[in-house]
Amino acid sequence: MSSLRFEGTYTAIITPFRDVGPNEPHESQKAIDWEAYDRVVAAQLAGGITGIVPCGTTGESPSLDHEEQLELIKRTVKLAKGKSIVLAGTGSNSTRATIALSRAAEQAGADAVMVVVPYYNKPTQDGLREHYIAVAASVKCPLVVYNIPARTGIDLTAETLARIAEAAPNVVAIKEATGNVLRAQEIVRLMGDRMTVLSGDDTLTLPMIAVGARGVISVTSNVYPAEVTRATRLALDGKLDEARKAHLALCRVHEAMFVEANPSPAKAALAHKLKISDAVRGPLVRISDAARTKVLAALEAYESGAASRG
Fold first, then answer.
1. Do residues 260 and 286 touch, judged by C-beta distance below 8 A?
2. 114: which strand partners?
3. Can you give the pLDDT at residue 19?
4. Which residues are identified as catalytic?
5. What are phi and psi of 111, to 5 degrees?
6. Which of 112, 127, 279 is nearest to 196 (CA)?
7. N or C: which end of the chain has fewer CB within 10 A?
8. What is the CB neighbour count within 10 angstroms for residue 289?
């Protein structure tokens, strides 16, 4: 079993794109803005983030090609290795493709890989077990399962996760994004210290830590890395009153990050804070004017309350 300990705040980092020019009418032609990505990573490191997760849902992984995903992982390793954990998103709905990208990520220097439950195919629980065992056997690094049934259309049960862990020692953690604290509780009850649970929903980080989760893979930390890191650490340290205040203060921002499809709201927030483009790849679009107003209002409210919170 890996000695790497998953605890704290990990940012599911955005992938910045440059705006499409007049001679590039199609959404798919939006290229990665590498200078902007470097600035986003630098802000994360300055905020003391525990880890960076390139090529997750927030990184628009379904819209990236294999070469772009690998380049993002390599660049993140170059910028962040030794300063934060690099947890590379490598999952897809193909076992073969997931194995290939997981191996490439490990070779590129990623500390661990995060593998989403295969989407669209709708495998059985036995199929999910075989998928994860095959991917885990293909690498030596730790593997983090990513369960988000609202997006994948299939739910990995706690019992199946336990069966995977029995056969694959390097499956050591799960990003639990069912939106259900009871599921996190069930995994902790069933598996104890064998499986680290990380919240996949910013709004549920505090209650999930209360039942045994050890941190969060966060969207909001794209915008407020230091603040989310602090809130998570307070909860992990058992400083309940302070943790509750920090968590509740962030809740309006957490909610604003999902006022429309992720990561469009997060990109709008970063466009405001870091002056980068909020371009997304199709079929996603920039958030509506009404949604943008809500996002910016949430940021303003949070920041205006910072002084009173100390």
1. no
2. 89, 144
3. 83
4. 146, 175
5. -75, -30
6. 112
7. C
8. 7
Which helix (H) or strand (E) segment holds residue 34: the answer is helix 34-46
How far apart are the C-alpha atoms of 19 and 236, rounded to whole Å? 40
Domain 8-237's class? alpha beta
DSSP per position, 122-182: ---HHHHHHHHHHHHHH-SS-EEEEE-HHHHS----HHHHHHHHHH-TTEEEEEE-SS-HH
pLDDT digits 0-9 by tens, 86-103:
999 999 999 999 999 999
Q: Quote the pLDDT of residue 1.
A: 47
d(CA 112, CA 87): 5
Residue 5: the pLDDT is: 87
Which residues are bridge partners to 215 per DSSP? 8
Reduced to 3 states (helix: H, G, I; strand: E, B; else coil), residue 250 is helix
d(CA 72, CA 150): 26
Handedness of CA 257, 258, 260, 262 (dihedral sign): positive
Q: Could you tell me the two tokens for 12?
A: 């599911």
List, in sequence order, every residue forming a beta bridge with 116; answer none if it has no partner: 146
Residue 176: beta bridge partners? 147, 199
Tally helices (H) and strands (E) across the chain: 13, 8
Residue type, 210: A
Low-confidence ranges of the chain (pLDDT < 70): 1-2, 20-29, 307-310
Give the domain ranges of the chain.
8-237
The secondary structure element, H or E, covering residue 289 is: helix 289-304
The predicted model scores a pTM of 0.95
Rounded CA gap, 96 and 267, in Å? 31
Q: How many residues does the chain have?
A: 310
What φ, ψ does residue 78 adopt, rounded to 5°?
-60, -40
Residue 194 DSSP class: G
Specify whether the backbone of 48 is left (phi greater than 0), alpha (psi in -120 to 50) or beta.
Answer: left
